[in-house]
Amino acid sequence: MELHHLAFRVENLDRSREFYCGLLGFAVVRDQAPRSLWLDLGERAVLMLEARQVGEPPYPPASLELAAFRVTPGERIRLRTLARERGCFDGETEHTIYLRDPDGRRVGVSSYSY
Question: Domain of 55?
Answer without folding.
Answer: 5-110
